[in-house]
Automatic annotation (TrEMBL):
Name of the protein this chain belongs to: ATP synthase subunit I
Places the protein is found: Cell membrane
Keywords recorded for this protein, A-Z: Cell membrane, Membrane, Transmembrane, Transmembrane helix
Xref: InterPro entries: ATP_synth_I, ATP_synth_I_Bacilli
GO cellular component entries: plasma membrane
Domain of life (superkingdom): Bacteria
Species whose genome carries this gene: Lederbergia citrea
Membrane topology according to the record: Multi-pass membrane protein
Amino acid sequence: MPELQQLFYRHCKYIYYILSIYVLGWGFTSYKSIFMGLILGTSVSLFNHWYLVRKTTIFGEAFTSGKKVRSLGTLVRMATVILAVYIAGKYPDTFHLVSVIIGVMTAYAVIMIDFALQQIFKSHE
């Protein structure tokens, strides 16, 4: 699974860049709650991506050794999103709810954009 780790590290790099832009937006604009929501949602998204890669690696190792794995952690990933939405609902002055939801989708957007770029670069080789 080394290619999965390479993909994950590349995705992490992109998400860290996005998070740094959000932190700058939080620090230098008056839209503090929107950027805090984006930071919270993107952090949850990064955690969920890390957790899915970890569970996928465990699943792959178990599959090659003939063992069974219960799940890929869908319940845990859903619970983290529910927790983030709950926090945004509990503190609406600090976290913008729609921004949290957009932030939760960040890892998926990064994965799709990275895949499209890799396919474009592969076709030009």
